[in-house]
Amino acid sequence: MRVGILSRGPNLYSTRRLKEAGEARGHTVDVIDTLHCYMDITSSNPTVRYKGEELPKYDTIIPRIGASVTFYGTSVVRQFEMMGTFSVNESVAISRSRDKLRSLQLLSRKGIGLPRTGFANKPDNIKDLIKNVGGAPVVVKLLEGTQGIGVVLAETNKTAEAIIEAFMGLQTNILVQEFIKEAGGADIRCFVVGGKVIAAMKRQGAEGEFRSNLHRGGSAEVVRLTKDERATAVNAAKAMGLNVCGVDILRSNRGPVVMEVNSSPGLEGIETATGKDVAAVIYEFIEKNSKPNKTKTRGKG
Question: Residues 72-116: pLDDT tens digits?
């Protein structure tokens, strides 16, 4: 099988592991810089060109689309889909997961546990916005933020009002969420492949840090999931339409709540913490499911 990994970083751990794991299983694997692809959009014969040449026919692509290039990256994925190439995660599903508001609305519609969340545009809604999510402390998030950037904990109502006013003054889109204090600065990353949780780790934020991101000094350890947590992760992945994703869950007093569904989850943290060969499991999924023109959302934009 010929596999293309859409990634801007050939030396990144996740990209290297996916290339190594594929080649170890006898596949031909190419790493393709997403932004260097360009598309020939013609009737009945769409193609993708790269560095002056038409790319060869790939059986499967593995999108590793960075948040900063979501629009162009999903356009490239969509072009491959139009060509009949199987994509591990489809373009529509990636776009859904990158839009924090849209993803929360989709999860809400499916009855999946979430922190109470508010979204508003005008400053005169601020007090009621804060009150409606339970009052301070609250978490204020930029819609476009990633990896903990643009996420602020406001410990009082006055502080929350000031932060929200500042963000709105910059004409940025924000979410206001209840702070799940009982989580203790920890979350659970569930790695879902093909509708199953294949690995999970608990990430604990550094002392004094409410964000649990590993690159911010957090630590990770293997964790045993409850039946409810496992079902929540699987249902969240299904709601997004993602075959491979990381579902971030907080343990609240009312059960698991989903913070985010990541369509390009990193492999280093989860493989190191659990000792599992996650890259190989992704290829097992590909080998069972990769077929020409197998795109669930084909033609739906």
Answer: 999 999 999 999 999 999 999 999 999 889 999 999 999 999 999
pLDDT tens for 162-176 read: 998 888 888 888 889
Percent of residues, the chain, with pLDDT higher than 70:
91
Same fold, 2-94 and 182-286: no
Burial group, residue 84, by CB count within 10 angstroms (0-12, 13-18, 19+): middle
- The full set of domain ranges for the chain reads 2-94, 117-179, 182-286
Chain segment 124-134, per-residue pLDDT in tens: 788 899 999 99
Listing DSSP states for 72-126 in one string gives: HHHHHHHHHHHTT-EESS-HHHHHHHH-HHHHHHHHHHTT-----EE--SSGGGH
Prior bond of 46 cis (ω within 30°)? no
Architecture per CATH, domain 2-94, reads as 3-Layer(aba) Sandwich (3.40)
* DSSP three-state, residue 221: strand
- Other C-beta atoms closer than 10 Å to the C-beta of 232 total 24
On whether the 117-179 domain is CATH 3.30.1490.20, my answer is yes
User: What distance in Å separates the CA atoms of residue 200 and residue 237, rounded to the nearest whole number?
Assistant: 14
pTM: 0.88
Question: What pLDDT is attached to residue 109?
Answer: 95
Residues 6 or more apart whose CB falls under 8 angstroms from that of 217 comprise 205, 206, 209
Contact partners, residue 161, CB within 8 Å, separation at least 6: 126, 127, 130
Residues 6 or more apart from 68 whose CB is under 8 A from it?
Answer: none
Kindly report the number of other CB atoms within 10 A of residue 268's CB atom: 15
For the domain spanning 182-286, the CATH number is 3.30.470.20
- Looking at residue 62, its amino acid is I
